[in-house]
Amino acid sequence: MNSLVLSFQEIKDTQLSLVGGKALNLGALSKIQGIQVPEGFCVTAAGYQKALEQNETFQALLNQLTMLKADDRDQIGEISEKIRQIILEIKIPSDVVKAVIHSLSQFGEEHAYAVRSSATAEDLPHASFAGQHDTYLNIRGKEAILEHISKCWASLFTNRAVTYRIKNGFEHSQVHVSVIVQRMVFPQASGILFTADPITSNRKLLSIDAGFGLGEALVSGLVSADCYKVKEGKIVDKKIAAKKVASYGLKEGGTETKEVHFDLQKTQALTDFQILQLERVGRQLEAYFDCPQDIEWCLADDTFYIVQSRPITTLYPIPEAHDQENRVYISVGHQQMMTDAMKPLGLSFFLLTTNAPMRTAGGRLFVDVTPMLASPDSRKMMLGAMGQHDPLMKDALTSIIERGDFIKPLPNDQSSGKSNKSVPPMKPKAQIENDSTIVSDLIKKNQASIEELKQTIQTKSGSELVDFISKDIGKLKKILFDPQSTAVFMAAMDASSWINEKMETWLGEKNAADVISQSVPNNITSEMGLALLDVADVIRPYPEVIHYLQHVKDDNFLENLVEFEGGEKTRDAIYDYLSKYGMRCPGEIDITKTRWSEKPAALIPVILGNIKTLRLTLASKNLKKACRKPWKKSKSY
């Protein structure tokens, strides 16, 4: 097998680095039964590398390009132009020319061909490079085809392609280009098919853009297109565009844009039968590649030809499900006021320490609540609980339920039984006895467990440490999901809801419990904020320290504090704060997040804000005192 030129049928699915994403997909498409692909071959990236590997000027310019950032537009343009000129002027290696001419003789030198770039970092699941490299249509004759192979090589260094690589972290020296030479099809209609709606991201709604003539005019935005929406074999929407112009091939080569006859401008580019026929082709390709596809197609002589199929990279990923049923997922991160994606280690650790049936997608955690919404009883309990802490989420869930056709209803006794064993039943809330020592005893018990863990874990290292953590996770889960602990915080949530409801009814006061709960003992969030106010109080009398903190740029600032008046007190106050709260940070449910003890400079803006805000109101002072005073047991409580 010649590694310089491969027919589509010869391309293997392991040859991405040799043929690029676009050619790799064409190779796969050409082997699918029932899918029509215009025949052709690929001039592999080995030819491109062979042509340039000994060119010192090219290598020097490539090194200069590596040093640039995306904002260096003038320099990118200047260097890229020089590289393109080198590539266009360089002689194509004789063995590459020989292999191309041989393939043309087999496919028919008299035919017209499309000559397309296929970069080795193109049409990937995480980066499509769509539109970054050049395509040339209706090229006739071996000399013209060889010339356009050089042009495709040069298109690897258009300004837009270079900038795209910089922004997406691709090294210029590691991205090569192959060239597709494919028999031209002169279609009556062509366009783009998305097997998932690109506007709504609905995976069940297929979207087709269609126009007359060649598809390149549509892809480039030169002409308007019809848009058809198809769902489960039925056309659910059609928007017929005024298709005033279309692009067609010329006999002598090249293309021209012509005006569409007035009588045809508002005629469907595809009949309803053809729309449904194309939908079946799209679903077949989606099933084959196992992900939503962005497909370029054309229609000639009542046959649909596929000229490209690549993953849709703009869709937000969804949790995996092993059926085709509708599902409702709730984001765990949003419930925790954390919208950032989590790193794999953070996801893995969270999944190890939870009892809830969770799924992952896009670096985020989700809970499948579909079974709980399917039964009236569990639905009522869930919406009630959601309404207490996230009214917007409750409204969203209510909207889904009111649609009527999205979730299949279940009898009450099947909400979480055999229909879905992964979702635990929503049980009635456990009663908690009226004992004021319950909370303090639980805190002491957990603190003792942490101290024991600290002592033990210090004796472990290497693989022994990993084994210890793995075994200890079972103990951690027991602590996290202690029924008594759950009963305590559920009682607190219910009490807050009751207070908010009654205070608004009786006194017209909204969210009263949210204010009162700030002064409840052991409210860690309030105590952290108040403790940081104490740190600000220590620093406020020392202007030199304040000035120094305003210009801190790294996390080694604490040791240098002693050089200023009040610096030692400041350092000790911050160290005291970190010793108690240093393990905390924003979005801390992700174990990989940098903690305050690791990056104490993250606290400086908050401390300086507290210092700047001199209006420490009487209410704040009273709140501080209330947090530190033990509560007395009350009969009314």
Quick rundown:
With 637 residues, this protein is α+β, with helices and mostly antiparallel strands.
What can you tell me about this protein's structure?
Helix 3 runs antiparallel to helix 4 (73-89). Strand 12 (293-300) and strand 13 (303-311) form a beta hairpin. The termini are far apart. The strands form four sheets. The protein has a six-stranded antiparallel sheet. The chain is α+β, with helices and mostly antiparallel strands and 637 residues long. The chain is 45% helix and 15% strand.
Write the layout of secondary structure elements.
Layout: E1 5-7, H1 16-29, E2 40-43, H2 45-52, H3 56-66, H4 73-89, H5 94-107, E3 112-119, E4 135-140, H6 142-154, H7 159-167, E5 177-183, E6 189-194, E7 205-212, H8 216-219, E8 226-231, E9 234-239, E10 245-249, E11 255-259, H9 272-289, E12 293-300, E13 303-311, E14 329-331, H10 332-335, H11 344-352, E15 358-361, E16 364-368, H12 370-374, H13 376-389, H14 391-402, H15 437-457, H16 462-480, H17 483-507, H18 512-516, H19 524-539, H20 543-550, H21 557-560, H22 567-581, H23 604-612, H24 618-628
Antiparallel strand pairs: 1-2, 2-5, 3-4, 3-5, 6-7, 6-12, 7-8, 8-9, 10-11, 12-13, 14-16, 15-16
Helix pairs in contact: 3-4, 4-6, 13-14, 19-22, 19-23
